[in-house]
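Hi everyone, sorry if this is the wrong subforum. Our group has a chain we'd like a structural model of before ordering constructs, and none of us has done structure prediction before. Sequence below.
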Amino acid sequence: MKIFRRNKSLYTFYGIFFGLLFPLFSIIFDSLRIYHNITFEIIYKIHLQNPLHFAIDSTPFLLGFFARIVGKKQDRLNENCCKLQILNKKIAAEIKKHEKIEEKLRDKNFIIEEDLDAAKLIQQTFLPEIPEYEPVKIEYRYLPMMAVGGDFLSLTKFQEGGLGIFLGDVSGHGISAALITSLIRAISNKTCRYFGQDPKEFLKRLNNELINLIPDNKYLTAIYGLLEKAHDDGMKFTFSRGAHPYPIIWKKKDNQTIMIKSEGIPIGVFENTEFNNKSIDVHAGDRIFLYTDGIIEKRNYSGEILNLEGLQSLIASINKKKLPLGETLDSIIKEVDLFSDERPPSDDRVLLGIEVL
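Answer:
Right subforum, don't worry. Here is the predicted structure as tokens:
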């Protein structure tokens, strides 16, 4: 700002100097040349005799005046340019600052992505291998909404006979839900060794173990079933559920689907909760479908939800095509996605199919 003030004073000096210096010398010169003297009367006579002389004498003053105006504009321009330079420096500093922040965020995001990839690999190791259990074929599809999810599946073949099937869904999704599934895996494996052949007792014990371990805002819906040989031409499926979606059975002989309803409340909410067992006979060609609510809660752009009845209808129509079990599961997933207008899923999804051979 001092530079601006100095330039302004300099332009003012130039204006006054050129405005007075040239007329002064011009009048003195003409007065001495014509009248050999200098008085106000002589100066007045000179201007009356030659009116152009006044214009000539005043021209430097006008030039000085215009120089003053131009100088002020130049001062403003210089001042604005200086302010602009300062502003540009501030903007450049802010950009650099934000670039550093973005770089840090990119580094953090990279670390998070690496952690998620590692968590995904770890969780994939939790997915069960399908045991050989005659005369049964089992297929499943595990589709987490994010890299990791809160749905859980385990299959346990007992030496005493029977196959334990546990399907759970932790409320919410993402990393927090995935961490809870790791806890559930450890506890359920231990519980299954002692109570795996009694579904209602399995859920009761699991509930009491989890009640003080999972956060208050989290809970688990689950279904645990025991598939065992009951007669020469079929199996018995006994299950207990904790507020989980109902099993759907496709009966080959009648070419129809049945939704097996039973009571049950979420796990990890109330201590010493009692659960109930329910059994159904399945024969050669029959199929049992278990799933998490990420399947039935899919919505389309009209806001319509697939719901239990919609899934039951899909299962009925697709099974009539007599596709292999794996292709049937893929077709169900595809039809569910078509129903939702290919909208991204809002929850994790698991679909399990069991076929009696």
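For your construct planning: The chain has eight helices and ten strands. Residues 51-126 form the longest helix (76 residues).
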